[in-house]
Amino acid sequence: MSNYSMTIGGELISGSATFAVEDPALGAAFAVAPNCTDSELDKAVAAAEAAFPRWRSDDTARRSALLAAAGRVEERVDELGALLTREQGRPLAEAIGEIRSAVDWLRYYAGLEVSVEVLQDNEYARVELLREPIGPVAAITPWNAPVGLAFWKVAPALRAGNTVVVKPSPYTPLTTLRIGELLADVFPPGVLNVISGLDPLGAKLSAHHAIRKISFTGSTSSGRKVAAAAAEGLKRVTLELGGNDPAIVLDDADVETAAAGIFGSSMINVGQICVAVKRTYVPRRLYGDMVSALVERAKAVRIGNGLEEGTTHGPLNNQLQLERVEGLVRNAVDAGATVAAGGSRIDGPGFFYAPTILTDVTDSMPVVAEEQFGPALPVLPYDDLDDAIARANATHFGLGSSIWTSDADRGAQLARRIAAGTTWVNCHLYLLPHLPFGGVKSSGLGVENGPWGLHEFTDMHVVYKNLVPGTPWS
């Protein structure tokens, strides 16, 4: 089996213990990763702490290092993409796209102009708002998009002047570890540390006394635990958590166009995207045609190993997630739902489940009310648009959403009524480095991407320069 190393203080550390990593297309282990010990965790955080004073002091060096890191990752995009497919399961083209997104985020933040904000400038005072780095940051990432989401955190955190300890999911640690190896000589020792390990490593990292900021992407339940751990040390947190994104089709929508967009954005990465479409509301007049169009697309996919040419959809990432999706669909069918397409595992090795379209579902069924995080799309009819919007909002989630219509202006007006961090009109899942991304309600705290994402990794520092000496408070 292949072996990978942690990067701690600029050194490659194989670790004193390891754990197996499975290929989800085969359902079998193919590599091992280091299982970080308490002492190795302490070394990683200590290295980040020691590197912080010098790293924070030179913005020009930070920008240059981010650009160099982007170039190094870009040189290895094919190697990294293939490794990501093996551990995560998504088709190779998607995996390479995820690696390229890391390059894009690094270059975006290297080029972002960060200036002092002047709050007052008159004869009485000049007041400036500075954005100061916080200190060592813990970046904890999930298994569904481990590289892309890591660099949503790493790039702005480093540009802001922080140092980072990255902890990927134990289901998908390898590509992140490999990137750490590749960048070990790009950043000064201790600036970027990458560790891996089984639970409770994430909890230990979050609770470490020297960590001053935690950026976490994962489930809402896990996010609550991270927030509780952060509260003890008054650490800053950014939490990007679960979603149950509704797609609302309006009565003037083109069915084929909407079906193509909704199916694509619900089934990419076989639904394992926090902001994928997870339920669809359709006017009753268009309902039959929309279901038929979605079923047609579900039956046309090619499911298989992501490394095989022509594969459009890969496996779920792990056995537990396969069982969850299977259970949600079974529960819905037992409660009266109809399987219009899919609805079962695919015979053979690996964690494969057929893209599934469900009808005759109700809002109270778990497959509608909860985040499926898999290839199961419930389609619900509506008779009144106000009722559809109310149903779309009747959830503790509030991450993404979309409206599908032939009148984009009408869609944009209705978008204001959706309780979500992002509402797309006639598209879904458009994520770019300059656009803020975050959730409302139980879908998270804080924001990622753009200058707003960089500000999440800073403390505000007001500098008030009094220009009228001798006044009462001078």
UniProtKB/TrEMBL annotation:
Stored InterPro entries: Ald_DH/histidinol_DH (IPR016161), Ald_DH_C (IPR016163), Ald_DH_CS_GLU (IPR029510), Ald_DH_N (IPR016162), Aldehyde_DH_dom (IPR015590), LUC3-like (IPR044086)
Keyword set includes Glycoprotein: no
Residue ranges occupied by any Aldehyde dehydrogenase domain in the UniProt entry: 17-462
PROSITE patterns per the UniProt record, alphabetical: ALDEHYDE_DEHYDR_GLU
Matches recorded under CDD domains: ALDH_AldA-AAD23400
Keywords: Oxidoreductase
Coiled-coil stretches noted in the UniProt entry, renumbered to this chain: none
Keyword Nucleus listed: no
Catalytic residues identified in the record: E240
Transmembrane segments: none
UniProt GO MF annotations: oxidoreductase activity, acting on the aldehyde or oxo group of donors, NAD or NADP as acceptor
Similarity comment text for this entry: Belongs to the aldehyde dehydrogenase family.
Name listed for the protein in its UniProt record: Acyl-CoA reductase
Species name: Rhodococcus koreensis
